């Protein structure tokens, strides 16, 4: 009976073979449809996330540009100089940088469309030009050196356009020449560490980048940059007279917005924005005969009482090269007993291989090619201290800021190139030749003749 019931139950609802096949097929189609629907949803989600990321990056960059320019109440550029022939430094477009390249185009169009406009306030007529008042002698160095307030002969001004074209051409040719090499020449702008970009001061109000070189009128050029960028206030009002700015404020690193500070403000966009500004802004520097610059650095840092340079540099020099064992702890005590670093000590210090191993050269005697990177940055204007008054006046005219200020007067007892023979008289010829090799790139790149009279026996 049980067997019969079992057989009967099995035969009550037999399943045809075609029904079984349909069921399997349906389940397969359902699974395929589910997978396709899932893939579609995942694709949409990924596209949405990607669009959110791209949109966010775009907005961040837009906010950065707006903050950096409109935040200073002046969102416009002055690219007034005639660009040198040949390609300007351009933003590299590497793989995966398509978005940034598009942003470049947008930013350039935005900057161009805003040229000459003041978004924060109505255009006002320029203030009347104020002649620089004579400075108060707050600083020992300025008190000792004084200023030259004599009137210049404007009839002797050189053909500045031709002169600038020649200086830029010299730079380009030697930077491109494979026959002339020096350290760091072949590296790209991206290879320069941020801490080596601390001499590039940016003025976003007027679209200017200035690379300052110590002992080449950099104090007064920094004063000019402070006035133009309005980066320093006097009782809540920006300085309008360069000579009214105290020297101690001029050299305060917090006063100037330099390239090495971009990272703190812009993060990973910093290097890219540097390139945009290098492409759009007017870039200038001032240079000087390298050997004369060394003499000037020695005079101001070791012939005058300077506590910082005495402890950091003079004491080690006196121990290493003058064999002093007992040295006063302060510069005033040393000067009282007539103990000073000699120019010979200073030259030995520069030539000593141990100097660079301990730390890079101090900025006052570091080579210009290491401070301003002229083979990685194509400068629009190269001024020289030897023609400072003419070059400065011409540059301010080209920047269209000559109605705002005048360049401060020169020091009246500026270190002259005619002094070289006297200063190097006690320096062995072998040392002079080594020193020339150390600064050869500065001589060549900036068109200074090789000082043959100092390098011959």
UniProtKB/TrEMBL annotation:
Recorded GO MF terms: sulfotransferase activity
Protein name: Carbohydrate sulfotransferase
Cell location: Golgi apparatus membrane
Family: Belongs to the sulfotransferase 2 family.
Originating species: Pogona vitticeps
Cellular compartments per GO CC: Golgi membrane
Keyword Glycoprotein: yes
Entry EC number(s): 2.8.2.-
Domain of life: Eukaryota
Keyword Hydrolase on entry: no
Membrane-spanning segments: 47-67
Lineage of producing organism: Eukaryota, Metazoa, Chordata, Craniata, Vertebrata
Keyword line: Carbohydrate metabolism, Glycoprotein, Golgi apparatus, Membrane, Signal, Signal-anchor, Transferase, Transmembrane, Transmembrane helix
GO biological process terms, semicolon-separated: carbohydrate biosynthetic process; proteoglycan biosynthetic process
A Pfam match: Sulfotransfer_2
Signal peptide positions on this chain: 1-19
Membrane-protein topology: Single-pass type II membrane protein
Coiled coil, from the record: none
EC class of the enzyme, as a word: transferase
């Amino acid at each position: 009976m049980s067997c019969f019931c079992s057989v009967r139950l099995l035969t009550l609802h037999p399943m045809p073979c075609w029904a079984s096949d349909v069921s399997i097929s349906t389940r397969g189609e359902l699974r395929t449809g589910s997978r396709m629907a899932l893939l579609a949803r995942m694709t949409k989600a990924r596209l949405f996330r990607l669009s959110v990321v791209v949109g966010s990056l775009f907005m961040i960059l837009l906010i950065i540009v707006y903050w950096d320019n409109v935040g200073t109440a002046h969102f416009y550029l002055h690219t007034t100089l005639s660009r040198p022939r040949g390609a300007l430094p351009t933003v590299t477009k590497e793989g995966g940088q398509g978005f940034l390249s598009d942003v470049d185009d947008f930013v350039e169009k935005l900057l161009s469309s805003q040229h000459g406009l003041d978004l924060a306030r109505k255009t006002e007529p320029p203030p009347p030009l104020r002649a620089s008042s004579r400075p108060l002698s707050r600083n020992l160095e300025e008190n000792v050196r004084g200023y030259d307030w004599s009137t210049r002969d404007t009839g002797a001004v050189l053909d500045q356009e031709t002169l600038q074209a020649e200086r830029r051409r010299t730079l380009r040719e030697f930077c491109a020449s494979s026959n002339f090499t020096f350290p760091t020449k072949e590296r790209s702008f991206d290879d320069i560490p941020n801490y080596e970009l601390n001499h590039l001061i940016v003025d976003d109000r007027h679209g200017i980048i200035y690379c300052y070189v110590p002992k080449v009128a950099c104090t007064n050029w920094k004063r000019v940059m402070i006035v133009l960028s309005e980066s320093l206030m006097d009782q809540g009002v920006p300085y309008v007279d360069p000579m009214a700015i105290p020297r101690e404020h001029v050299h305060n690193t917090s006063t100037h917005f330099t390239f090495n500070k971009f990272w703190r403000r812009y993060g990973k966009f910093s290097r890219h924005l540097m390139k945009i500004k290098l492409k759009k802004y007017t870039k200038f520097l001032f240079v000087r005969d390298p050997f004369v610059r060394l003499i000037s650095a020695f005079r101001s840092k070791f012939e005058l009482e300077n506590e910082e340079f005495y402890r950091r540099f003079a004491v080690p020099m006196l121990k290493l090269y003058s064999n002093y064992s007992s040295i006063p702890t302060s510069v005033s005590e040393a000067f009282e007993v007539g103990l000073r670093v000699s120019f010979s000590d200073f030259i030995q210090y520069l030539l000593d291989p141990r100097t660079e191993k301990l730390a890079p050269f101090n900025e006052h005697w570091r080579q210009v090619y290491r401070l301003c990177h002229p083979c990685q940055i194509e400068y629009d204007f190269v001024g020289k201290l030897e023609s400072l008054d003419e070059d400065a006046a011409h540059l301010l005219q080209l920047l269209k800021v000559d109605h705002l200020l005048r360049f401060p007067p020169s020091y009246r007892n500026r270190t002259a190139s005619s002094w070289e023979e006297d200063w190097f008289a006690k320096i062995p010829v072998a040392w002079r030749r080594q020193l020339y090799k150390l600064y050869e790139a500065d001589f060549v790149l900036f068109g200074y003749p090789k000082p043959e009279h100092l390098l011959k026996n």
